[in-house]
Every structure is written in C-alpha cells, then in structure tokens.
Model the fold of this input.
Amino acid sequence: MKKIALTLATMALTLSSIPAMAAETGGGCGVGKVLLEGQKGVGANVGASILNQVLLPQSSSMTSGIMGCDTTQVVKNGHDRETFATANRDELSVEMAQGQGNHLASLADIMGISEQHRADFYSLTQKKYESLNGSDSAMMLGALDSAMSSHPALSVYVR
Amino acid sequence: MTTYIPLNHIRLLLFTIIFFCSFSSASAEERVNNLSEELKNGNLDQAVRLSQNSNHYLAELIQRANRLKLYKEPTWTALVHYKPARFSGQISEVDGDDFFLSRQGKTEPKAELEATLAGFFSSKLIPPNKLTPQCRFVARYKWLSEKLDFDSKRLKVETCEQFQLYMKGLDPESITVIYPTAYPNGPSSMFGHTSLRVDKRGHNQKTRMLDYTFNFAAMIDNENSLSYAVKGLTGGFTGRYTILPYYMKLREYAQLENRDIWEYKLKLSESEIDFIVRHAYEIAPTYYDYYFFTENCSYHLLTLIETAMPEKGLSKEFNAWVIPIDTIKSMDNSGILQEATFQPSHRSVIEYRRAELNPMEDALVLDMTQDGLELHLDTLNSLPIERQAKVLDTLYGYLRYLKLKNAEALDTKITNQERKVLLRRSKLKIASAEINIPTPEIRPENGHNTARLELGYGDLNHRNFTRLGFRGAYHDLLDISEGYAQNYQLEFFNLRLRHYTDTKQLELEELRLIDIFSLAPRSSYFKDTSWRFSTGFKSITTEQWSYYMDGGAGYTKKTNFLKNSFLYAFIDGDLSFSPNYSNGHRLRIGPKLGILAEPTRRWKLHLYGQILTDTGSGNENTTILNLQQNIAFTKDNALRLEAKNSKSETLTEETQIILSLLHYF
Done:
C-alpha cells in the first residue's frame, strides 16, 4: 500500500514541484572548514560572514570542496570568545541593552565569569552599551576589556 | 545451509593452494613479513588472507571473532548500517567508500569485520581525514576490543590525538534530541526536523547554546524546484552529518524560521552516550545518498542513536516514509525519552511580550514601529520605567521580526531604527524579566498517530454507500489539535473508496496526493496570508476521473466565538482536467467563507460555504455548504460527521451525509 502511495506521491510532487520533507539545507563541511580557518587566525571576520551565511538556506558554495573535509574538527575544547562574539554580535548587542539573556550568559561562561559576578557583568554591559556597540565585534571585545579592567569585581576576568 | 558447503570447499581449495604456494616459495617468516607489508600499505583484504594459518595475532583475533559470530551481532549491523538487501543478503546504507575497510564491506559484514581487525594493526593513514583505522573507527574499536579483549602487548593501542580533542570538546553529560516543529511556509521543513545535541558537562539551560549539534542534512546547491524534487526523491543529493554549535541552529529555527523547538533529553547510560558520540565521529566524515522520504534527517538520527541500543530496533519500523514526529514517537515507545524542554520561537516570544502590554502600550509599539521612536518619546516617557522596558523589548522584537522577514539573504545586521531602540533601552538600566512561556501541556509525540484509516457509512441523495479511506500522513484541520498546530493541515496521500449498496460497485471517490491548508490568523502585528492547496484525482462519474488542483488564499481572524476559533474569507477555486469537460478542463473560482472551531479539546468543527463560478460554459454557479465535525473518544480513535449540500443550475442538487470512524496508527 505504502509503496503505491509513494509512486503516486512522486508524481504529485513532480507535478506540483513541492519538495515534501525535512531536507535541511545549509552549511555542510564547508562551514567547519571556514570556522577552523577563522580560528587559526585568518581573521574572525571571515568566520563571521560565513557563520552568517550558514543561516541562510540554499547558499551554494558551501557544498563545493566538501571532499576531504572533516566536520568533527569543528568541535573545540571551549569556544573562543572572538568567534562567539563575531557570530552572535546582534544577539549580544540586544541582550546587553536588555541587561540579561542567554547569549550574554554564554559569553560570560566563555570568559570564565563566575556566577556571583554575572549580575555585575550584565549591568556593566548595559551601562556601557553605547561604547560596546561600535563598528565591529573586535571593538566590542576591546571596549569590554577596558570597561571591565576599571571595575572592582570584573577586572580579574580581563585576559 | 546448503549454499555454504560448496563455498567452504572452494575456500579449502584456496587455502590449500595458498598453503602449497607458501610452502614451496616462502617460509613462514617471509609470510609474516608480507603480511606486515600489506598492513603497512593498508591492503587489508590481502592482509586478512595472508594472516590465515599464520601465527600473527590478527589470525587469532579473526578466528575468535568468527567463532563468536560477531559479524552477525546487532551492534556490528548497526555500526556498519547494514540493512536487508532487496533480494537476499545485506547492504550498508552508507554510500561513501571510505567507510569500508574491505572492498566487499558494503555487502559483506564478515569481510568488513575481518578487514577492520586487520586495520587495527595498520598504521596507514586513510582517507578522507588521514587517520589510522584505529583512530578513524573509534566505535568499532571500542566494541571489538571489549568483545575480543585485545592484548595491548600484541596489538598496539594508539593514542588518537584528534579524537581525544573531539571528546574533550564535547565532554558529554547527556544527549538531547532537538525537534523544531513543522513550519508551514517552508516547503523543505513542512513536517519538522530533528537533530542531536551533545550536552556538555557544566553547561546549564542558559549556556546550552554552546553545545554542539549533529545534523544530518542534504547538501543542496542551487536547484530549480523540479530538479530539487526529482533529486530529492531519487537520492540525487548527498546526505552528510554536520556539526555546529547549537546557537547557530537556534538562530536558524527560532529566529529566522520562527519555529518553536522541543528538546528531549535521552535516557542513556554513560557508556551508551560515549558509544553514540564515538560513532558520530566515525560516521561524520562519510556520506549517504539522501532521500527526502526515507533516508532523511530524522531517519539517520535514529540509526546513529541505534548503535548504542541495536536491540530496540528504533529504525526498523520505517519503510515508505520517515516523518520526524514519527521518529520521536518511536523513541518514546522505546522508553528512551526523558524530560522535554520547550524553546519558544522568536515569534512566540513577541506574542508573549505583547500579551503583557495594555492596549495603550500595544498601540504605542505599533506607532513607534511606523513613525520611529522620536515622535512618541513623550508618551513613552510618561510610563513607569518597568513598563517602558516592556514596551521597548516588544518593539525591538517586533522590528527584528519584520527585518528578518523581509531581509535580503545575508543582511541580518541591526538597523539604525533598532539601534536607537536598544540605546534607549540600555538607558533604563533595568534588566528585562525572564521570558517564562509555559510548556504546552501536550507534547508533540503525545498527539494522534500520523497514518489514518477511515470506515464510513453515508447517504448521497438517498443512495447508501460505504466509504473506505487511508491517509498516509499527517494531520488535517479536524484531527484533534493536541500535539499539533491548531490551524495547519498537511495531508499526504489520502485515498477514499466507496461502495454503493444498490449497484454493488467499488468506486474511487478521491485520491488526494497533497493537501495543505494554513489558517494563519492576521493581527495588527502579524499580517499573514492564509492559503491552501491540494491536488489529486476525483471521480466525476462512475467511470471518469479527473485530475484536479484546487486552492485559494485569504485572511483569517482568530475569535473567541465557541471558545477558540478561526474565521476565514478566501478567494478559492479549482482547476480540473477530464475528457468530460468541453476543452478538456474546467476552471471555477469564487468566494469562500468558513469557520474552524474547537469548542472542547476533543471536539472540532469546520463549517464553510462557497460559490464556484465556472469560467467556461455559461458561467454556471455552484453553491456548496459543508459542515464537518470531529469528536475524538481516544487519542487515536475518532468519530467524524460530514453533511454537505451542493446546488447548481443545471445539475441535480446533491445532499450527502457521512458518518465515519477514524483510527490513527
């Protein structure tokens, strides 16, 4: 029964050109590759534009050059804050303005800020919103470091 | 059994020849040297052959493995993804050559196991990721070393640096299945999707976005829809696992596509988690051919989880199609689902925030959206700080929604208008309250099953008939909403036959191949258009079928009439092809008004009236009035009553009443 159904459905699909099922498009190994390159120092900005691209279905070029790439290498022991900040700049900006949020908590986690200092961190990023949200994410982190270094509790977390 | 005897004879013969050859031309020592040479070069099938009758440790391992019939064990079957082949034997679903160490590995579990054992002695770096077999096949190694109790003095244990980094990075505490719900307006995700998240030790619900997710996805280049459909159905795309931080998937589902997400923590032991993560490592570099219906994202997530519990047969019950929610149900039936967490989509969050505003604040958000912030600052400033924060948070969320909805491909950057809102918001110096959207009472896997059988009895102008129906998938507007979207219908292969009592003839009533109906309510925030489309075959006389496409579009309003209902107005029409019509086709079009209501959790009704004007001969009008009701007495059993009247100027008036029993399975 189901086999006949499948054949007929195939016809229908072809006729109506509606792809039916969960085909997730989007970045494949290509992403991992570029993510890696970004982390190896080609520059966080490259990573950023690619990270953004990943969000968009049907962006081609992701799939080219897939052979020989190994997505398991995307996994790193700990995220570095540059990549994270670049990839989540918009969300971080919003949550800084709102004084809380999961992205901000994750950034705090990456920076090793302990639970007891999180509230300080959130209110600092809210207070310094304007200076933190300049032209790019590298600036954001630079400004964050300088804002934190003059904070009594948070200065210890500046690298 | 009989087929084995000749085979054994041949083997014996081969052994004799090999033995003879080696006896006459090579000493035992030389043979072991040759074996080492083959291992070094990665010629594993040859190494297996040479090891026979040698005193090499490999020979001993192969002998023990075969005595234990390890190649027949469910774990081995799951690890190499063997499925019964079409006629006889087995075939692995994996399509990348790099996944097999034996040349016959795709179809020969035993050869693959022997070559794998040989591979563990080989230091040859193999493609695609230039690792030794021990470091490439870390799950196979773990399982075989436990089964055969490898002697580390005779088989060198390698330190696999790259794998250790991977494990350190994942440091798994648990594994969670991610289920973004169906998404009506994205054809590629109409049924939903599933992926796997490896939950790192030390993360909490807030920092889960730093975890890694494993997705099985088709690698799709720009395709036109026709070749997309054809390739998707015939396995023309390559399916691969991608590994990405969860924050990227969250953004994709919750922000860009506005899909709510369910996260199911799996009930797994530490060693099961370890095994799944190991197998993910060995399967990720290779590929499968991707089939939209069968070997899709959800299916290969099951086959990955299955390696840790092959006896549960998670992927077994699927043959013609795999729907993501069915795979969740399958895991539920196997008892491996634990607590579920609900992650609201961006749009759900806006709706939640909006519900907290009073009408004046709500209007202010819309005004500021339209005119910018500056014009309404006085009104805003007149509110208490906390209320200002709520208004600005709703405003920002809404602006972002509009921005993403209309965003050209790459451009997701914060706009100037958004920036002004955020700057203003930061000056309030208070933190937003946590979003606390309650988890829906009924989890998706507790909704009705997706296939449906129908047995009905009806009356058409005083002729009685019996109706038999089968629907492949998945949910229609009248099916009980629990676990599904209330206002979204997606049906796939709906066949109805009828048998008239007087003529004793079995006829095709209709075969609907696809039927989508999206009733998206329009509000002052979300200006959605509702639409429907269906196509298939219908009988027009006892002998004649027509192929039809029908559909329409319009607006829907949510009302509180009968508790919870959707009122809609559509321009609707149908196009049918049949030799019965002059010109071979008929196109009708006209207005349609309807209401879908849910007076109780188990009772739904749908009433509509429509006028269809034939655009061809004589502009004849047909008026249709239809009332359908559905009462579920259990989750998977329901009673449906349909009364329909259809009147036109030349044809006789038709009145039809059908009472059906529905069973979901």
